[in-house]
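Write out the 3D structure for:
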Amino acid sequence: MKDNQNEIFPLVNEEGTVIGQATRGECHSGSKLLHPVVHLHVFNAQGDVYLQKRPEWKDIQPGRWDTAVGGHIDYGETPEDALRREVREELGITDFTPMFIGKYVFESQRERELVYVHRTTYLGDIRPSTNELDGGRFWTMQEIREAMGHGVLTPNFESEFSRLFLDEAKKEKYRLLTAQIRALIEGETDVIAVMANVCAAIHETMGFFWTGFYRVQDDQLLLGPFQGPVACMHIGFGRGVCGTAWKQRETIVVPDVEQFPGHIACSSLSRSEIVVPVFSRNGDVVAVLDIDSKELSTFDDIDRQYLEEICQLLIC
């Protein structure tokens, strides 16, 4: 079995207006002819996400896991009609309520698509097509995070899902966490008490491996309040990730601690790390917030942004 390379697709501009037509073969030949597709992300009541497995005979990304429903809009078809047709054909679902998320242009070496993105929460039976798919199942958010970047998922799904769902969920969690911390420490003047509750709130909410503070004491960092396994008690100025963040007076994100020169291994289970300086009102570094993860590349600009905002609440 294989895709019909003579199937006619509409060609569109970035607003979605039809400006012509071309065959599937022409659109997927590297011509970058912009053609429209529909995507539906299917969630269950637990927030897990259904992914389909693409058959090996597909001409694009064979054998990889992909968005629950994804398909081309036929020439003369509306995005809404195409979505319902694709959902019926691929998953056997007819009674669902889609929510339109937005549209964007996706480009790879082989093609250029205008993607209409939708989501739905569905509690009924899913019957994946045996002709179009190699099955499917619900994935937890953690499973999706762990699979990213390892050739298991399609690049299109990874970029789309990260931007529209993982990133937004992470931001919302940080927004709630920041509000909680602001309320927790309001009016408290004891810095140890403040740090204790801050690292406890971060650790419990985000589920990191190790979360804690090192306080500046003379020419070294001294272990302060923390959550997690036992840790190094003294770190010198400019040593390791913590000492370097102190010296450089800036946040340091380390995707792989084994690649950081002079990394101090308090635990062999730590794989990635972020360290954020805490400043006094006169601009001196008085502490650093150190967070470790057991996974590689855990921390990104979202973590940096919100953890820096949290540390600004500690200015004393």
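The chain has a mean pLDDT of 93.
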